[in-house]
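Entry:
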Amino acid sequence: MHRTDWKKRCAAPRAAGAFALAAMLAMLLWQWATVTANYGGNWSALFCTGERRGVPACLASERIYQFQDSEGFDGQLYHYIAHDPLMRNPEITRYVDAPRYRYRRILVPAMAWLLAFGQSRSIDAAYRAVCLLWVGLGVFWTSRLCISLGAHAAYGLAFLFLPAVLVSVDRLVTDGALAALTAGFVLYSARPSWKLALVLTAATLTRDTGFLLLAGYGGFLLLERKWGLAARYALCGVPALAWYLYLMAHTAPAPPVLSAALSSLAATIANPPAYPPGTPLTLALHAADLLVVAGLLFGFVLTAIPAFRGRMRPERLAGMLFVVLGAFYFPQHVYDSGRVYTPLLLFLAVQALRERSILRLTPWLAVVPRVGMQMAPQILGVLRSAARLK
């Protein structure tokens, strides 16, 4: 290979890697700022543990930050799972609201446990490091994808503003990892490879909706009449299915209260989120909530209409599956709906880049303001703290 060609081939990974490192530094800096300014330096606040749920006695030494009069958020559950990924400690499992359901999303907690070599005192730092690495990998893959589509690698930094990534940075949920894997899926689905197989296998172990990526690629191969290849890639779901069977043998079914919380699209539109009396800017919150619903609905339309025109791509098929999911499962709060449908927003963003069409970015732009409003108290706390230091 000519030396000039070799330099060109190496330039893209180096540029993407530089922006990935910058993104990881930015994430770490923000987390340090909000933890210092808003939570007294207690990093466990990022797990968003609710006082109503309490904390396992075996983790009392961690001095876990608890939000008063709150149920907390999902990050607290994956934090507990990281301490006990094989469910050997009933005291910890008891604090996971639906083990059969929550433990399906095992990849991020298991990676934290492995990185900490199973040492409980190191789990929290390892968990944060794993989330940080996934953000970096997501920016790296997105930058590589931008370069392949003729755009500058810096556009990969937009990955940081995907709803799932913002929520993961804020509350350490597993959806940031799936967002990264979605970027990897789009990048590698152009041709079969071991990298694509690894991405699809990891996606199914990260979150249930990761199976939609696998189904999208499998459907693409079937449409291309590549039967043998489709069968081989179907094996990417075997580790997750085996893990599900293990959970069925060791856990009880999910409680009815969890099933009742799974809102349909019609229910979400008919019953918008309610806010406690005295919540500031309630009118603005309701307007932003409506904007989220309208934006995601528009995203469904943009995905569905062109799906049967032109050359079919794996991400188009996967996007259609997310549209079907949206009819049956559409959480009310943007921290839920935004992160669940982040892969769809990413698919539309890639299409916008291919077609140089800003219109397909509209759904993403409609969701982000409400996420920002949710983070506004933390941002104000950081600004006030910075002002005091002057």
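The first strand starts at residue 49 and ends at 50.
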